[in-house]
Amino acid sequence: MTNPHDPFGDRSQHPENRGDSGDGGNGEFPSYPSYPSYPSTPHPEDAPGYAGYSGYSGYGAADWGSAGQPAGIQPQGTGRIDAMAAVRWAFSAVFRNWKVWILGMLALLVVSLIVSAVGEFLFPTSGGQVPAEFSPGMETGLNAGGLIFQLLYGVASVVVTVLIYHGALRQVDKQDLSFRDFTGNVNLGPAVGLYILLQFLMVLVLAVILVPVALGGGLFAVDQLTSQDDFLSFLGVVLGLLLVAVVLSLLVTPLTQLMIWYVIDRRASFGGAIKEGFRAGLNNYGRLLVFNLVAGIVMLLGAMVTLGLALLILGPAYLLTLAMMYRQASGGALPVDAR
């Protein structure tokens, strides 16, 4: 007799469930009473090929398990930026890894000053050059050398910037960061190319708008300044152009500042990063605009009050906030300690 709780298959094939000895009366197996059994419970972890919860599968998957957190349970971005949550997390990450971010920022600043000083010493840009009448051809050689030095310095600066961006994304994925995280598996070529392209396009847009205004305002007629009124008028044009440039940069930046992160994060190709970054920036345009405005004011005032020392903290915090907001806007993995 069977009951609804019997599992599939013939239970009578098991000796312990048979009413007789199970050996045709030889007594080899004792008789057991027939007990109802419970239905089996499926266990997906026992199935072949089960790999657990996959979580965020893109580049930069989380490494929180080593810090006492279960791996693979990072929350995901929703496509909407939460600037305050990003700022809170960024400052906590800066202070938690202060040896990397604060001391690293200080070391980078010192190295930059040293390199600039060496370049100025080797290729002076002012009265330090040798007059052409005393050494024919020397002045031209120094100018060419200075140009090459500035070009190499600019390329190196872009490379270092991309490495810092890469490290900021790794900080989103890790509680503890080391200097090795800045140089491991970097998508360097496409990121450098896109960074240079974005900077060039920004300069081109500003030039197209500002040069006609400057011509109309007589900005290039400096040699015609013959009175104090002319000088004040010239100064007004300069300040007006600077204001226009700042406003234009502020309005355009939200549409472009997320593009580079897609390439560094390996979530999109060169062209795809432009498309996805523009879309994410457009969807969060107001939030990014307000954040950039407030961040710019805070960093300017902090630098003025502390003679630049506050930038050792505000600079890394700003960059980490951008990395966090990119992950929020792109639907990527977020830190499990973000609140």
Note the gap between the termini: 60 Å
Characterize the largest beta sheet: strand count, sense, and whether it forms a barrel.
Answer: none
Counting helices, strands and paired strands, the structural category is mainly alpha
Strand content: under 5%
Q: What's the total helix number? A: 9
Question: Which tags fit this structure?
Answer:
339 residues; mainly alpha; 2 domains; membrane; transmembrane; transmembrane helix
Brief synopsis:
The chain is an all-alpha fold. 58% of the residues lie in helices and 0% in strands.
What features would you describe in this structure?
The chain starts with 82 loop residues before the first helix and ends in a 9-residue tail after the last helix. α1 (83-96) packs across α9 and α2 crosses α9. The longest helix has 36 residues, at 138-173. With 339 residues, the protein is mostly helical. The chain folds into 2 domains: 1-40, no CATH class; 81-330, no CATH class. It contains 9 helices and no strands. The relative contact order is 0.14.
